[in-house]
Amino acid sequence: TASGTANHGKMVFDVDGTDILTIDDGGIDVASGKTIAIDGTDIVSAAGAITGITSLLATDIKIGEDDETKIDFEDANKINFYANNAKEVELAENSLSPGTSDGTALGTTSLMWSDLFLADAAVINFNNGNVTLTHSSAKLTSNADIDLFRDANNADVALRMGTSATESFEIKVTNGGSNKAAESVTFTTATAESGGNAGKMV
Predict the structure, then answer these.
(1) Cβ proximity of 73 and 61 under 8 Å
(2) CB 3.0 to 4.6 Å from 21: which of 13, 46, 70, 145, for a disulfide?
(3) Which of 102, 76, 103, 75 is nearest to 87 (CA)?
(4) Radius of gyration of the chain from its Cα atoms, rounded to whole angstroms
């Protein structure tokens, strides 16, 4: 470490003339092919991979690219997920929730989930009980009236119920070419009698 030498401020550890570890003001450098071990277990390789650690347990630990995008264990018994300095998701016992109410979307217009699987007696709950859909055996029950409107001007609207497209009951509201008021409501079944006005109410 003498002043003016090439190794001033540097410590080099070698075994039989082979450099193993270098410490200087730039940090600790492990030689190629070498590892750092604790109690005989390799924990850091020369490539920088952490291979020997099997658990990280600490109160309020954070893991991420920075303090704005991270997994944060700041709350007891809860895991918080942050992106761009906003808590987007929190995982607690028996619940996976957005960081704030109405704050996180489930998918986007270009990244959509494929399927949704719900258990027996599952409930879809809108706005804290304003409207609910509850499953029971082969049935969905709502706690409120359900309005179905097609959001398009001058468009015909059809609601079909049945076992197939050919074995179904159809309610169709015909609006006409430019009239936004319904011109007719038609009820049609697969076995409807022939004729232009079969099952039609005007």
Answers:
(1) yes
(2) 13
(3) 103
(4) 33
Apex 174 CA angle, 168 and 177, nearest 5: 145
Closest CA to 182 of 173, 191, 172: 173
pLDDT for residue 153: 66
Tell me whether residue 82 is exposed, middle or buried, using C-beta atoms within 10 angstroms of its C-beta: 0 to 12, 13 to 18, 19 or more: buried
pTM assigned to the model: 0.66
Give CA–CA dist 198/192, Å, rounded: 7
Per-residue model confidence (pLDDT) at position 48: 61
Cross-strand bridge partners of residue 62? 72
DSSP string, 54-88: -----TT-EEESSSSSEEE--STTEEEEEETTEEE
Q: Give the per-residue pLDDT at 47.
A: 64
Question: Which strands form 62-64's sheet, in the order they lie side by side?
Answer: 62-64, 70-72, 78-83, 86-92, 95-98
> Which neighbouring-strand residues pair with 28?
23
Kindly list the averaged pLDDT for each block of 10 residues, start to end, along the chain of length 202.
57 87 84 78 68 83 95 96 97 96 95 96 96 94 86 73 76 68 63 53 48
